[in-house]
Write a structure and sequence with these properties.
The protein has a four-stranded antiparallel sheet with strand order 2-3-1-4, covered by helices on one side. The chain is an alpha+beta fold. Helix 2 runs antiparallel to helix 3. It has ten helices and four strands; from the N terminus they run ααααααααβαββαβ. It is elongated, with a radius of gyration of 24 Å.
């Protein structure tokens, strides 16, 4: 029994160590990607981004205060808020990530890659978004705006996305006034590139989609999902009603979770079984437990 406990303890310690190493690698890669995007694209061309990073870039352009210092100062209130709203571990990782980004900006000089405004907006946003996304995957953050959005959503009962949009509208309006309308427009393009890249890095290529299928041939649909797609599913009874007379019929509803790469295959196979099947698809931010990984069938 004692030996078993030691083995379990060693296994737990090894898992924690591997997780810490993995998180650290994500955050370090995120720091260098963001620093490259800032110094090689955005800073030389006076482009900004949204969020706390955008505020730092805007103040740098107006006052010439070093960006490395502003990134730390602007994020301090968000870090304190993150400690209270999310937790101590998150706040520590976020603090180390932001300090690491500031240190890299001071110690390492990245050369300017291009002066083409379109390329600057797209690729500057790409590397910055990738950096922020990698840091999030490591459990930290390089931009504290989302912490404020979470806090306000809990206090005011509004959506997190709405809060972020409002914050960024204010930032881009300030950029249009203090810099130029053209710079603000290109900065909006930078923000779009960064946000899309961030979503891709965080969600990955296997972003999950929940699919609800209502068909009179539910058994054939079930076999297709399990055997041809190799996915698990849930069946539940439902009663439909339609028409003025309120006609009802009972059927099995099929619910499954697939990746976006499998949507086309599902559509083709479903068309063969029941072209009139009613299908509802919705994006899923995260999944836990169950049969998520694909099962291989011979």
């Amino acid at each position: 029994m004692l030996q078993m406990r030691r083995l379990l303890k060693f296994g737990t310690s090894s898992f924690k160590a591997s997780t810490t190493i993995k998180d650290t690698l994500f955050i370090v890669c995120g720091i260098f990607s963001a620093a490259f995007g800032l110094e090689s694209f955005l800073l030389p061309n006076r482009f900004i981004d949204g969020g706390a990073t955008g505020i730092s870039l805007l103040v740098t352009e107006v006052t010439e205060i070093p960006l490395s210092l502003l990134i730390v100062v602007v994020n301090i209130p968000f870090l304190v808020m993150g400690y209270r709203v999310i937790g101590k571990q998150f706040a520590m990782k976020a603090t180390l990530a932001i300090l690491g980004l500031a240190l890299v900006l001071v110690a390492i000089h990245f050369p300017e890659v291009t002066q083409d405004k379109l390329l600057v907006a797209v690729f500057g946003g790409f590397f910055l978004g990738a950096g922020i996304g990698l840091s999030i995957r490591g459990g930290g953050v390089l931009d504290g705006t989302e912490v404020l959005a979470i806090f306000l959503s809990r206090k005011l009962g509004v959506k997190i996305g709405d809060v972020i949009i409002i914050i960024n509208i204010v930032i881009f309006l300030a950029a249009a006034y203090l810099l130029s309308i053209e710079a603000a427009l290109y900065s909006m393009l930078t923000y779009l590139a960064a946000s899309k890249t961030l979503d891709f890095v965080v969600d990955g290529i296997e972003e999950y989609t929940g699919v609800t299928i209502i068909s009179s041939k539910s058994e054939e649909v079930r076999l297709m999902v399990t055997e041809k797609l190799g996915r698990g599913l849930t069946l539940y009874k439902a009663t439909g009603g339609y028409g003025k007379q309120g006609e009802h019929n009972e059927y099995d509803v099929v619910y499954t979770v697939i990746t976006r790469l499998e949507i086309r295959k599902l559509t083709i196979e479903l068309e063969k079984i029941d072209p009139k099947a009613f299908v509802v698809m919705s994006s899923i931010n995260d999944t836990r437990g169950g049969m998520i990984k694909k099962r291989n069938y011979k």
